[in-house]
Design goal:
The chain has about 110 residues and is α+β, with helices and mostly antiparallel strands. Helix content is about 40%, strand content about 20%.
């Protein structure tokens, strides 16, 4: 049954990820939607397509602030690129280490 769910969802354009998982909740679906109302419509479509489906949990992000390293404006357009904090910290550590080696060699 899980394989049927995941294969069927591959053709729904709003679904970005549909994967089988272990445990009582054994299907994970990630969708990109434009409104809360579309979430309800998607859930209804899922329940119509799979009558034995139980939706056990949902999480809704109303507005993405950043996508793929780019800060987003309220309309969703990319405003500017920003390195993640992890990359920034790693670069600072590397620079500090290089400066210490340079200072030690002189």
């Amino acid at each position: 049954a899980v394989a049927g769910v995941t294969l069927t969802h591959a053709h729904w354009p709003e679904i970005r990820l549909c994967a089988a998982a272990t445990g009582a909740s054994n299907v994970l679906v990630i969708a990109w939607l434009r409104s809360q109302h579309e979430c309800i419509l998607l859930e209804n479509r899922l329940l119509q397509s799979f009558p034995n489906l139980d939706i056990t949990e949902r999480q809704l992000t109303l507005r993405a602030l950043k996508r793929m390293g780019r800060l987003l404006a309220p309309d969703g357009a990319a405003k500017r690129r920003e390195a993640s904090e992890i990359v920034r910290q790693a670069a600072e550590r590397h620079l500090d280490s290089a400066c210490r080696r340079l200072a030690a060699s002189t």
